[in-house]
Every structure is written in structure tokens, then in C-alpha cells.
């Protein structure tokens, strides 16, 4: 077979790999500064307003599987293409370890799938070593990032309220939506036992921030992508304006293979396979910015071996792939008898929670390190696949409208009426916490496996420690306390020690970070404090890989702020001719 | 929400009206339910092919399909509020979902067989050939998990699965959602829990919440900050 590598486009100023939060922000900042940018994305182009791709405002019955998660892991209407398993793109796990890797191959990447929860890291989150010594401090602090958070708030839009909580810094907020009924009940119940509940902070436009994007019309479907672009996704809010400058060439379906280097070891571009014609291409650029996701960027670096970089690119420290860590997650559902026989009204609201519980305790008094926040759901949402399952576990436990008990299960008119009575009477709680970054948890290249493009794949080595398990136990105890306080009945059995208290496998919360961490010491970190590789000064990584530690916050807002900061550093360094 | 209200809701934002109206005004007829058309609900080309492939396959025999239809109508019959499971084409949904989720195939096929054998023992004929009274007599043996006899456990498990799939198939259909009174999936302006509901639950929005939260009249105004 004749095989050749074709060069695409001119010599670009910058080649960015990945169009998610980090890559999108880099593309916007760099193109607006007048630089010529090639943006590589491994999946197809995507716009939630494209009628061929739109899932928003579809009814469950428009899907023959009624929205079931058979093909998309979060259901048929979720915007994200991809998932934990992608055909032809495997990954492996070292024996006795676990990690599930969620990938979204499309313009905007995983910003098409998330709860739009947009929390700033607080001052303590950058300096965890100072509190428990269990991991390292970041080389930067909250004050370094604050100006960028401020600008991200105003550029993209996030609703919330000023609360004055030290480690949950306030920002420039849009007004939040009023709480829903079950959220008010949770707030009251949690308040009784000393747990604070405050308005959530979501990047959804309750009011517009510019003339290009509409404001929320309350369909509760941000996870489907918004046709009026009233929620944040990178494709909508960042790549679109980057394209508008005329300075960006966006290459879709371009699966990056490796970062190319010259004899001196400097980056010269990126080679990729075009998934549509399966031909090999390369893009040449003066600067390479990786934003392919923490693990995919690490994979690219490890696969970019040369005589100048025998351990993989930017890996003289051996730290590429190390310190991989995801958020912890555990959850519990509950039935709230008070909410039976509810009056019907449209309570869709925004796509996500209107209130949430920020971390509220002091670790000194606890048997685990670091905190978690609690998210919750409930309400009269659109019925989809799974609606009505398990009625036989509930309808024998509560009296009928006439006040009589009846046998569980059943059929016919009485059963049909039960579904109406119980509709909207369940709530759920989910904890999302900070794990301990450990050098022992890592991804590496599996020497024995390639994907369908011939690219060597990642092998994961990851185990939770007692810290995370104890944190999950605390979550479960808290869920039950709140449920009892609101007169509810927790669903199913409380997960015990044998199930790690319901602690999900690493990778399941899709907040993995840390694989190319920043630091001042080039022997223990991959990047400097501006997301620039210690070893290669024209190479940057602006995804979650740069994180030293993930807080109990969702990482996106921090990825955005750091990518903006790194991109402006690039512009500045180019002006000074330092790169 | 009627069309006029939708337009009003839209007018307050700088939205792409064309896009939205084409979404919410779309007639949800049989064509879109069949979901066989390209782009009907935002499929990728691979997903579209997969849907088409599944829809072209047939799993249940005519006899099995007929028994599923009978059972589904026993589980969700027509009443004063809405039609029956078969009015909502629940059996068609079950036929699709077992092809989509093959793990369901064996429990359902085996369960149907169990039902027919039980019917044969009791009435000397298959379930679908039994009289309406006989069918109910048999269903009563397996519809109540807590009082069913151990010898009928397999039937109970099958009926639980049928009950769940029938409920999902019915209440995710257009007539099922109308029955349930689901009011959403349309552009609107959320302005909090209705007053009478707040009163019913002894709750109210406090002054701080009212002050902080979005005011409906601000929805179209571009946000500005003091600093």
C-alpha cells in the first residue's frame, strides 16, 4: 500500500489539538490576537442548532428506545457523541485497577456533556499541601487566577449569588432562577441539621451577556445542547467566535497521532489521520497547544518519542500520565411521600439544579481529607425510558387515596392511577468530592495494543485509597440525614463497606485531571505555571492535565481561566520573541 | 403554552426564532414516532443506520406479540383519562427495545413460554386462547410479588418486567404524557413554584431569594456589572 503524509495549510502560528473548554478558549484568545491557528478536532463539526443534530425539545417518543442509554451513555438525547467505550478506540487497565475513560469526539468535546456547574476553585484549593500534606501545592494561587475567572464569568455567563464563603469565591453572576419545590424542601430540611443550601452556579444565560447568544427559555435540557446557545459549550461560545475572526482553520475528524519535533526537540507541528478518508496528514506550526483532554494529551506526548525525547515529549521528569485523578462520586435516591398527588405545572427550569450544597465542614474533625459538594435532582420531568420501573417495590407501602393499604404490584386501572400519584415524588442526591492526587495512579502507553488508526493506546493504573472510601461513606450518611430530615424514605439499601459505600469507579465523574501537572520543579512536573512544557518552550497543555489537584469543584471553569491565561502568555511571549 | 405565549417568551431573548419554532411547532405525527427519518431526533449517521437495522429486524413471533399486547392492556387499560397500552402502541415499543437491549430477550421469551405452559396446566389452552376471566385468574397469581406462591416466582419476575416495560412504553408515549400531565418541553419563563402550591407545602420565597433571583422582565436585557 502506498502511504504518504500530506501537509495541510500554511505554516500556522499555532496548532491546537482539541476543541473542548481548553482548546476552544485558546482558539478564541489566539485568533482574536491575530494569530493564524489550526484547530484539530477528532470528531465531526457540531452545532446544537443544526436541525440534523438537534435533540433539544424532542419528545421521548421521537426516539424508538424512548431515550434509553443504549447508544449514548447518558441517553439518546444527550448531546455528547462518544462515551466510556468507543468502537475501534480501546484502552486497557492494569490488573486489579479500575478506570473508565469518557471521550466525546465532536466539536466542543465534553463541554457538550456536563451539568454546566461552573465553580471557581478557592484559595485553599490551590494550596492543599498546606492543609493536609497529602499532595502538592499548585505553583500559583487564587489571586493569580482570579482576574481570569472574572473575565470568563463575563465572557461566557454564569448565574449565582454572592455568598461570601471564603473557599467558594464569588464572581460576576447573572441572577439565578427561583428554586423548584423539591429544592425548597431540601433547603429547609438540610437547614434544620445545619447543612447550607445556596443557589447553584451554572453557565446558563438567565440574561444575555452579548448579542450573539439568546437567553434561557427553561426547558431543562442543557445536556442536549441549546439551539439558541444560551448555555456554555465550547463549540458555541468559543470556537464560533474564533472562526469569525477568519484566523482559524478548523480540521474536524482529525485524530492526532503525534506531536512532531525537529532535531533540537522543538515542536514543529502535529500529524493526524483524517477519519473520513483514512489518509495521513500533518499541520506545521510554530507553537503547539495540546487540549485533547488530560488523558488524550498525555497519550499524545507519550506517543511522540524521538531521539531528543526518548521517554516521550516533555517527559524528562517521567511525570507525563502520573497523578491522574478524578472526582469522587456517590449517590442515593429517595421517595418523598409528601410529594404524592402533586398539582401539575411546568417545573422544567434550567438544565440542572437551581440550588446546591457547597462543602461545609472542617476536615480536622473528620476521618478523611478534603471535601465534597452535593447536587440534587427531582421534579416533574419528562418521562423517558425507565419511567415506572419498580412500582411493585413502592405501591404496597403507602395508603391509597381512600387511606387503605393494598398489595404491592398489581395491574389495571388502580395501577395506572399509581403512576400518576407517584409522578414527581422522588429526589436524588449526588456527592462530588476531591480525591488525593497520587503518583501511583497513572496512565501509560500499553505496549501491546493499538487503536484502529494504529495509535498505541493508554493503559490505566488507578486505585482509590481509604481517603476516598471514607469520604463516600460520609456522603451516604449525609444523604440519609437530609432524606430523614425531609420526611423521605431512602431508596434501596444503603451501600456498605463491601461496595465502597457506592463510590463510583475513577473516571465515572469525568473530571479526570493531573496527567501533565504544572509546578516550579522541572523534575516533578511537566508544565510551568503558564501551562508551558518545561522541556519544550513552544509546547503548551491547556486542558485538565495541568491541574496539581482537583478541588471538590467541577474543573471546567478553571480549565477555561487557565487556558485564557496561558494563551495571553503565548501572545506576550511571541511579542517578546521568547518563543 | 400556546403559540402566542411561545412567541412572547421568545421575544424577550435574542433568540433564533426560526430554529425554535420549527422545533416546537413540529407536528408530532406517526412519522416522527417511527423515527426512521434522517435527522428526526439528531442521530449521527452511524446511529441512524443502527436504528434502521433494528427496525428492519423482527424478534417476537406473531403469537408472542399478541400475548404481549394482551398483557400490556391488562396492565394499562383504557380508563376515563386516557387510552390503553395498545392505543399507545406499547407492544411495538417492547418489540423494538428487546432488539435494542438483547438482555431483555431471554427473560421475555422465556417468560411468555412460562405463561403459556401455566395456562395450559390450568385451562388446557394457551394464554391468548384463554377467556378474559381465565387470563385474570392467571395474572392474579403473578401480579403481587409479596403474596405470590414460590412455585410462581418465575412468572412474578416476568410480570414485573412486563409491568415496567408497559409503564415506560405507555407514559413515554404522547397519550401517556398527556395523561400524566407533563407540562414542559417547551419555551417558557420559569418564575418559581405557583403560589397555591407554596401555600399547600407551607413554603415561601423569602425576601432575599426574591431580591436575588431572575425577574421575568429582565430576561431580554443584556447583563452589565458595576466593575
Automatic annotation (TrEMBL), chain A:
Residue stretches making up the Glucose-methanol-choline oxidoreductase N-terminal domain: 101-326
Molecular function (Gene Ontology), one example: oxidoreductase activity, acting on CH-OH group of donors
Pfam family, one: GMC_oxred_N
Source organism superkingdom: Bacteria
Record domain Glucose-methanol-choline oxidoreductase C-terminal: where: 441-563
Requisite cofactors: FAD
Keyword entries, A-Z: FAD, Flavoprotein, Oxidoreductase
Family: Belongs to the GMC oxidoreductase family.
Protein name (Swiss-Prot/TrEMBL): Choline dehydrogenase
From TrEMBL, chain B:
Domain of life assignment: Bacteria
InterPro entries attached to this UniProt entry: Gluconate_2DH_su3
Protein name as annotated: Gluconate 2-dehydrogenase subunit 3
Amino acid at each position: 500500500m502506498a502511504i504518504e503524509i500530506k501537509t495541510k495549510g500554511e505554516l500556522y502560528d499555532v496548532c491546537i489539538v482539541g476543541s473542548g473548554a481548553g482548546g476552544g478558549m485558546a482558539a478564541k484568545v489566539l485568533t482574536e490576537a491575530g494569530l493564524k491557528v489550526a484547530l484539530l478536532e477528532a470528531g465531526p463539526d457540531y452545532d446544537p442548532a443544526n436541525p440534523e443534530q438537534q435533540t433539544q425539545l424532542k419528545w421521548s417518543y421521537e426516539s424508538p428506545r424512548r431515550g434509553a442509554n443504549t447508544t449514548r451513555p447518558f441517553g439518546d438525547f444527550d448531546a455528547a457523541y462518544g462515551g466510556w467505550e468507543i468502537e475501534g478506540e480501546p484502552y486497557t487497565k492494569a490488573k486489579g485497577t479500575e478506570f473508565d475513560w469518557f471521550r466525546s469526539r465532536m466539536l466542543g468535546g465534553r463541554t457538550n456533556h456536563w451539568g454546566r456547574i461552573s465553580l471557581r476553585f478557592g484559595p485553599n484549593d490551590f494550596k492543599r499541601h498546606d492543609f493536609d500534606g497529602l499532595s502538592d501545592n499548585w505553583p500559583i494561587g487564587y489571586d493569580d487566577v482570579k482576574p481570569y475567572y472574572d473575565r470568563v464569568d463575563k465572557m461566557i455567563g454564569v448565574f449565582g449569588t454572592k455568598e461570601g464563603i471564603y473557599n467558594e469565591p464569588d464572581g460576576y453572576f447573572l441572577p439565578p432562577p427561583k428554586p423548584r419545590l423539591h429544592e425548597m424542601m431540601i433547603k429547609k430540611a438540610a437547614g434544620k441539621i445545619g447543612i447550607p443550601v445556596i443557589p447553584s452556579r451554572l453557565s446558563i444565560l438567565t440574561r444575555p451577556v452579548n448579542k450573539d447568544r439568546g437567553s434561557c427559555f427553561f426547558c431543562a435540557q442543557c445536556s442536549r445542547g441549546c439551539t439558541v446557545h444560551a448555555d456554555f459549550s465550547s463549540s458555541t461560545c468559543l470556537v464560533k467566535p474564533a472562526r469569525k475572526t477568519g484566523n482559524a482553520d478548523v480540521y474536524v475528524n482529525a485524530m492526532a497521532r503525534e506531536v512532531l519535533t525537529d532535531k533540537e526537540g522543538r515542536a514543529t507541528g502535529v500529524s493526524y489521520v483524517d477519519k473520513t478518508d483514512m489518509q495521513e496528514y500533518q499541520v506545521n506550526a510554530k507553537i503547539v497547544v495540546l487540549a485533547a483532554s488530560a488523558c488524550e494529551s498525555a497519550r499524545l506526548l507519550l506517543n511522540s518519542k524521538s531521539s531528543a525525547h526518548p521517554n516521550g515529549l516533555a517527559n524528562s521528569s517521567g511525570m507525563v500520565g502520573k497523578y491522574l485523578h478524578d472526582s469522587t462520586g456517590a449517590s442515593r435516591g429517595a421517595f418523598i411521600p409528601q410529594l404524592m398527588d402533586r398539582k401539575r405545572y411546568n417545573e422544567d427550569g434550567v438544565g440542572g439544579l437551581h440550588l446546591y450544597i457547597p462543602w461545609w465542614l472542617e476536615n480536622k474533625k473528620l476521618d478523611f481529607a478534603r471535601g465534597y459538594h452535593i447536587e440534587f435532582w427531582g421534579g416533574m420531568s419528562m418521562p423517558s425510558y425507565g419511567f415506572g420501573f419498580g412500582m411493585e417495590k413502592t405501591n404496597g407501602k403507602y395508603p391509597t387515596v381512600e387511606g387503605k393499604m393494598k398489595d404491592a404490584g398489581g395491574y389495571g386501572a388502580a395501577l395506572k392511577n399509581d403512576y400518576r400519584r407517584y409522578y414527581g415524588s422522588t429526589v436524588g442526591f449526588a456527592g462530588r468530592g476531591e480525591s488525593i492526587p497520587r503518583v501511583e495512579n497513572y496512565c501509560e502507553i500499553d505496549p501491546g495494543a493499538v487503536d484502529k488508526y494504529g495509535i498505541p493506546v493508554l493503559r490505566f493504573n488507578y486505585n482509590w485509597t481509604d481517603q476516598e472510601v471514607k469520604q463516600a461513606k460520609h456522603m451516604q450518611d449525609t444523604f440519609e440525614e437530609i432524606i430523614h430530615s425531609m420526611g423521605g424514605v431512602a431508596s434501596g439499601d444503603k451501600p456498605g463497606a463491601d461496595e465502597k459505600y457506592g463510590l463510583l469507579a475513577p473516571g465515572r465523574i469525568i473530571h479526570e485531571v493531573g496527567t501533565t501537572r504544572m509546578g516550579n520543579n522541572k523534575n516533578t512536573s511537566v508544565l510551568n505555571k503558564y501551562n508551558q512544557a518545561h522541556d519544550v518552550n513552544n509546547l503548551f497543555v491547556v486542558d485538565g492535565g495541568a491541574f496539581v489537584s482537583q478541588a471538590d469543584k467541577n474543573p471546567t471553569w478553571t480549565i477555561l481561566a487557565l487556558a485564557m491565561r496561558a494563551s495571553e502568555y503565548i501572545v506576550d511571549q511571541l511579542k517578546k520573541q521568547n518563543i | 403554552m400556546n403559540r402566542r405565549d411561545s412567541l412572547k417568551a421568545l421575544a424577550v431573548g435574542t433568540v433564533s426564532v426560526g430554529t425554535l419554532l420549527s422545533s416546537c411547532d413540529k407536528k408530532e405525527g406517526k412519522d416522527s414516532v417511527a423515527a426512521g427519518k434522517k435527522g428526526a431526533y439528531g442521530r449521527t449517521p452511524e446511529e441512524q443506520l443502527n436504528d434502521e437495522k433494528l427496525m428492519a429486524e423482527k424478534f417476537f413471533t406473531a403469537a408472542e406479540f399478541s400475548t404481549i399486547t394482551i398483557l400490556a392492556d391488562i396492565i394499562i387499560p383504557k380508563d376515563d383519562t386516557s387510552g390503553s397500552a395498545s392505543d399507545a402502541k406499547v407492544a411495538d415499543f417492547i418489540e423494538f427495545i428487546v432488539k435494542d437491549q438483547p438482555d431483555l430477550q431471554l427473560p421475555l421469551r422465556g417468560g411468555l413460554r412460562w405463561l403459556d405452559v401455566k395456562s395450559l396446566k390450568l385451562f388446557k389452552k394457551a394464554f391468548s386462547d384463554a377467556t378474559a376471566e381465565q387470563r385474570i385468574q392467571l395474572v392474579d397469581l403473578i401480579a403481587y410479588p409479596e403474596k405470590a406462591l414460590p412455585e410462581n416466582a418465575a412468572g412474578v419476575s416476568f410480570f414485573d418486567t412486563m409491568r415496567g416495560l408497559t409503564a415506560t412504553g405507555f407514559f413515554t408515549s404522547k397519550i401517556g404524557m398527556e395523561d400524566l400531565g407533563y407540562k414542559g418541553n417547551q419555551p417558557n419563563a420559569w418564575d418559581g413554584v405557583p403560589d397555591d402550591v407554596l401555600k399547600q407545602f407551607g413554603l415561601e420565597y423569602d425576601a432575599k431569594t426574591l431580591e436575588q433571583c431572575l425577574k421575568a422582565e429582565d430576561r431580554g436585557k443584556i447583563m452589565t456589572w458595576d466593575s
